[in-house]
């Protein structure tokens, strides 16, 4: 059925090692990139939304504080 | 049928169904790719002319086929967006561009590397190589055009038009090896006979890699489309629920 006799023979690829393995290495790079990049983008996006929400909350609290202070001074 | 069509164009439906489908698709893809790659790399006999170098074809052929299929898919989505104004179609089209670009780059790179010892050159302005390079530029152009617009709606429309103009290139890639007699070889005929030049023990693992890569392609498209949905539908209640649910869990990866 063919195939290789030993692992070192497999790595040597009959003298074509540099071609075969660089092609397969690029293949792996492309696969990893296509999974990793959208996952990273998702994480970043979630973080951004979380921070935006925090900022909004802080702003609302600060506004509330100011209103309380002005209410105190007028009453 | 129309109800199904309507459902498919709902971002919420797409997000939910794709989320449920993902683990199955990921398992199937890993199995197919794992079996196909190990089989193709280690357990098939060497080619009588190309020796072990032909093993590059196990990734070169499916990546080129999927890159072209990706362009067709992007064009269908562009048409659906222009004709029926389906926003979901535009989101999928947007996801297709970077994925198709990487698959085209992979096809070109693996072909070049294979060509060095086989053809004696890594590049030649052969009809198929040139038309594939044009497809790479079209994918890049589609992404650049979209990012050049501040308005999402205007960018989507212009991108869809460019995508449809560029689709003429894909059949040229397919038939280039028939129309012009240049360097790139034609499609190999698959034979069931064990004594043929291309017997089953050579091409069966290629089908495993091919379907595995197809599954991977779908996963890559789904991941990007889901991100796009979350981004564009951020003001809806159901996305808000997803975001708050992920917050309580700490990280949102599901």
Helices and strands in order, then pairings?
The complex is a heterodimer of chains A (75) and B (254).
Chain A: H1 7-12, H2 17-74
Chain B: H1 2-8, H2 11-42, H3 57-84, H4 87-119, H5 127-148, H6 152-166, H7 169-179, H8 200-232, H9 237-249
Coiled coil (chain A): 45-72
Protein name (chain A): Heme exporter protein D
Function (chain A): Required for the export of heme to the periplasm for the biogenesis of c-type cytochromes.
How does this model look, in words?
- The complex is a heterodimer of chains A (75) and B (254).
- Chain A is mostly helical.
- Chain A has helices at 7-12, 17-74.
- The longest helix of chain B has 33 residues, at 87-119.
- By secondary structure, chain B is an all-alpha fold.
- Chain B contains nine helices and no strands.
- Chain B has one domain.
- Classes of the chains: A mainly alpha (75), B mainly alpha (254).
- The interface between A and B is large, with 31 and 43 residues.
